[in-house]
Each structure stands twice: as C-alpha cells, then as structure tokens.
Sequence to fold (280 residues):
Amino acid sequence: MPASGDRYEAALAWLEGELDFPAKLRRTLEAEQGIKLAGDRLRLRLFPPRISQYEPMQPELPLQILYEDDFCLVVHKPAGVKVHPDGHSPQPTLANMVAGIYSERGEPVAPEHIHRLDENTSGPVLYAKNTYAKLKLDAAMARKEIGRVYVALVQGAVSPALRVIDQPIGKDRHHRARRRVSPSGQHAVTRIELLEAYPAASLVRLTLETGRTHQIRVHMSYAGYPLIGDALYGGSTKLTPHQALHGESLMFAHPLTGETLSVQDPWPASWTALLKQLRA
Fold:
C-alpha cells in the first residue's frame, strides 16, 4: 500500500489533472489545513462561511434568480441599478440585493461578481459563490470563454452587410465618462446581426468578443447607429430615458463539471411598448 504522503500527492495530482484545480487555491487550503485525506476520500474545505462586504438590502421587487447551484449564481440586473456601490449614490445596488438574498435565507455566502453591466443596461450578471468558482470563472473570463449576447434598439436602418465592428476603444480625453474609438485604444470586436428593420430604427443582436467599457454603445455610435436613449453617445431620449440595451444570454463552462451552461434573460417588459411604437 502506498504511504499516506504518496497517496496525498497522488490525490493532489488528480485534483490538478482532472479538475484543473487552481494552484493558488491549493496553496491557500493547504496553509489553512483545508485539504485532508481520510482513507480513500479527499476532503476539501471549499465552502467556508463568509459574510458579504455589502450591506444586505431588499429590492422593491424580488430579485430574479436565473440560475443557482453551490458554485454559481446568475441574477437579472434591472436597468437603473448599479452592479456595486460607487460611494456616490445611496440607492441599493445589485451587490446589496444579492447580499440580501443570503441574509434573508440565513446562509453565510458572499457571492462575487465575475463581470459588470452598465447601470442602465439590463441583463444577467454572473456571480461566484466560493473561491474555487471565482478563480475558475475569472480565468475563463480572461481567456474570453464567457459568452455574452445582447439585443439593442438603435437609430437608423442598419445594413445587413454590417456583421462585425473591429475597432480599438480608449478613453475620451475631452469627456471623463465617455469612451471612443481610438487607434491607441484596446482591441475591441463586436459582432452584429440585424433582427428587424423599422422606418427609422433597427433591432440588432450583438455578440461581444471582448469586454471593453461601453463597447456596444461606442461601436454602434461609431458606425452611425447610436442606441435609442443613449444620450452620452448621440442617441435620442424621446422614446426612452436610457439606452435600449439588454443582455439576452450568458454562456459559460461550469467551474466544477465543465458543462456548458446557457442562461437566458427575457427581454424587458418595457420593450413591448417600445417595439410597438417603432413598428408603427
């Protein structure tokens, strides 16, 4: 029978080989005695109790959970809600609302967001519920392996021939809040699919290959089709006070099983009247 030390090393090798276990987490767990070999079982302390750094708050309407298991959480972010506090607004953020879910349940869980959405963009936001999931999902995000698909209502008749915008995006030195297409900016690619054309507007589906700040808003404005309601980038606010942009779906590999998950987020109810106006 192999010595216990050999079996322990073999178990760790299995973790790294089969689960692609993050080396950083392995070192942390070993330092905290969170990895133990009990007979033929390897015990990992992956779910230590944690309290959120954000004050738990309850939203006016119940927060819509689109997917949840022991590792991941996907919630719908309504338009007009920030993903996390910025120190300027007292309004509850999505982070406060998520903390409120677990406070109300009495569960010591503190999910951390993997990506962000603009304040006035609605759609799904992915959270990691433990350190293992956070490290795996952060790495997937860095490798551009988390797919995000959006729908938007834009001004003007988008040509079906417009399929991709590949233009770098950088800061606008004349406007602190804006971004712009700039030769010295970061690589940015947006793929476009025309879904419907109206007399003076278009409904498009957009897939991000990169995740730059305001990427869709900048690219569509640069192409001559600013988002309806997006005053920052030249859009009219006659029909809606903020950009008509919604995260339609989110695709990612589950951090433990590797299974590809596709989470859908239905279009906002407010779009029903907006589409009716545009079609008329």
About this structure: The longest strand covers residues 147-155.
